[in-house]
Amino acid sequence: MNKKLHLVSLGCTKNLVDSEVMLGRLKEYEITDDNADADVIIVNTCGFIDAAKEESINTVLNLHDERKKDSILVMSGCLSERYKEELQADLPEIDIFTGVGDYEKIDELIASKQSTFSPEVYLATETSGRVITGSSYHAYIKIAEGCNQACSFCAIPSFKGKLHSRSLESIFKEVKNLVDQGFYDFSFISQDSSSYGRDMGLNDGLVDLIEGVEAIEGVASARILYLYPSTTTFALIDAIADSKVFQTYYDMPIQHIDDAMLKTMKRGFGEEKTMALLEYMKSKPGAFLRTSLIAGHPGESEESFKRLCDFMESFEFDRFNTFHYSNEETTAAYTMKQVDEEKIEQRAQILGEIAEKCTLKSLEKMIGETVTVVIDGESDEHEYLLSARPLIWAVDIDGEILINDTSDLPITYGKMYEAKITELVGDQLLATLIKAL
Question: DSSP characters for 354-376?
Fold first, then answer.
């Protein structure tokens, strides 16, 4: 009888790719959702901000409390890497500790029951043998690891290191391999995607990547996540907009818009240059803009916060997320005078309300449009409704459209359809299928 594996992947989609590599190395195990029945339990942790760190620790301890005798509990990933000495001293419940360098050795670590932390950060390639999870048609492609930026609030470079890009050839081979397996929709990810290739001498590596992916037969749709203002070029914005494969989707976390705050955050770009990029993106036909902000960073005055709110209300992003500032050791902001926690909470709530309004306006604009969607399955809302995602939207983060009229078309999950959006009910779009594609 096969041994059973329970894996929990926390944090970002970049973490998910590494989790999928571990699944690929442990194919002899039967995957189980019942952690109490698992012989091996792996938690791939996130160590980005306090909330993520707390979630990682709580998840590990809860799984330990429920696990069966003689099972193996593994803690891997960013939190484990960032606090390796402290965690190994404070968590005797964990059988194996490993960080961000040994995902492809997870089978060896489990067999030997040894903890290890490689000095180099792991970057998946076309030979990694990943097991794609969560979708039969969409996959994330990690194009680089690490980051050369020096943002005041971010600890990632301290445990992920400098930018390390994959070769274009490696990326293209992985995409081709996945197309052969039936995948046709791809999201390209890294910590700072718009810097891709700079460590290899490429001036605008994403433009080269776009051209190469477009030439791969079978790729129907793609998007790039995590652009950085100071490394995003107008040529890249054009290449995305002009592509017949890449969605006109711009995901560029700006964190703030006030000049003084951007300088304090060490963002590299001020308001004028950031605005120029955003306006150029917005000018592209059918463009979808997503960003993220930080509420309550040290130095954020009432005036600078109001400046941010006014901008976010007037610019009307399609989607944006707000993070509460988290004071992280090893960062430049750690020793700055901190904003009161209650004030951070209030500001995050205000920005959250603005985000809801922006999302509703974006959804309202789609009423009457004909869009390409993928049917993901039965909706959680009602058994007679289908959950669909417009291909321009990113997986999991941008929402769903509910299909309430299939026009009696045969339905295949994971297949593309043309649909007409008919109405907005609350914050939920409804659509009618027109034809299969």
Answer: HHHHHHHHHHHHTTT-EEEEEEE
Give the number of other CB atoms < 10 A from CB of residue 170. 16
In tens, the pLDDT along 228-265 reads 999 999 999 999 999 999 999 999 999 999 999 999 99
Contact indicator for 140, 128 with CB cutoff of 8 Å: no
Kindly state the DSSP code that residue 334 receives in the 8-state scheme: G
Q: Which residues pair with 40 in a beta bridge?
A: 5, 72
Nearest to 124 by CA among 175, 194, 71: 175
Alpha carbons 94 and 80: distance in angstroms, whole number: 11
Nearest to 5 by CA among 56, 88, 63: 63
| Secondary structure (DSSP) of 208-255 | HHHHHHHTSTT--EEEE----GGG--HHHHHHHHH-SSB-SEEE---B
For residue 227, which of 259, 187, 199 has the smallest C-alpha distance? 187
HSE of 217, CA atoms in CB hemisphere, 13 A? 0
Query: How many helices (H) and strands (E) are present in the chain, helices listed first?
Result: 13, 18
Q: Which two tokens stand for residue 147?
A: 């980051």
DSSP 324: E
Can you tell me whether residue 10 is helix, strand or coil? coil
**Cα gap 398→295, rounded to integer Å:** 21
- pLDDT tens for 256-284 read 999 999 999 999 889 999 999 999 999 99
pLDDT in tens, 312-335: 999 999 999 999 999 999 999 999
Strands 386-390 and 138-142: unpaired
Maximal CA-CA distance, the chain? 65
Do residues 434 and 417 lie in contact, with contact meaning Cβ atoms separated by under 8 Å? yes
| Phi, psi (degrees; rounded to nearest 5) at 389 | -125, 125
Q: Find the angle CA(77)-CA(82)-CA(88) to the nearest 5 degrees.
A: 85
Determine the 3-state secondary structure of 393 from DSSP: coil
Distance, CA of 41 to CA of 148 (rounded, Å): 34
Query: Beta-carbon neighbour count of residue 70 at 10 Å?
Result: 6
45, 110, 322, 355 from 83: Cα distances, Å: 11, 21, 26, 34
**Tally of CB atoms within 10 A around 91:** 17
Length of the chain: 437
